[in-house]
Amino acid sequence: MVYDKDANPELFAYFVAGAPGQVLDNNNDNVSWGVANGTSCRMHSLAWEDRLKRDQVRRIVDEARLITSDVIDLSFPPDFINIQLVKVDGDLRTDEDWPCENNLESEFVETTSGRSYKKSIIIPVGIAKNPQRKSTVKLGFGVLDKPVEMEFIQHAVDQAQVMTVWKAQGATLKRVVLNLEPIRATAPKWKFEHIYVGMSRVTSVSNLRCMPLTGAFRLNRCGIFDQTFSRLSGDLIINNTNLGF
Predict the structure, then answer these.
(1) Can you tell which superkingdom this protein's organism belongs to (predicted)?
(2) Per the omega criterion (within 30 degrees of 0), is the bond before 9 cis?
(3) pTM, whole model, 2 decimals?
């Protein structure tokens, strides 16, 4: 889903159900339960407190499904983004150690011992609460005569397709794309311990790919490479940077 980019073309955002994400601040009511800045999650759904807005979104979604649209434009952002908490390997966390009343999940699973618990942890995430830091963006480059700087607010969660090499420490992943190319000139250099951690995260070396590829290594010579990118749910690209995800 996309906020209406025709209304504010420079200020729109994406939501993809099931996409990997990351919590962005510590100012929420779940820190005591281990949900803080950097917590991994999976995008689940959007929520609005206003019933009229909820009804309007349902109509928009229903109309889009009739024409089998893959992208749905919304003219207003959600009040909350509901997320599912995940383990370091990308699997969903169950609520065995989570207060049941603070979980939006409605489906239960039963253990062999007969104990029932919710199959995942779904919590709402609202607007980031950090009064000490203002987020700004400059609009109008190439469009306006003079760029305009605007302040904006954002939800305390965002999609995160990559993780740092240290964030991956301790994880066991089915497929890994190891990005050896620095994303900026000041990025830290790869060291032996970085390479070791990055390459030892994957269960099978046949599912490990390093970027950038050498000139002699072509995509059509390794079909699983395409599958690696098309099936990244629960598996991540690993960068060597200190920016978090």
Answers:
(1) Eukaryota
(2) no
(3) 0.69
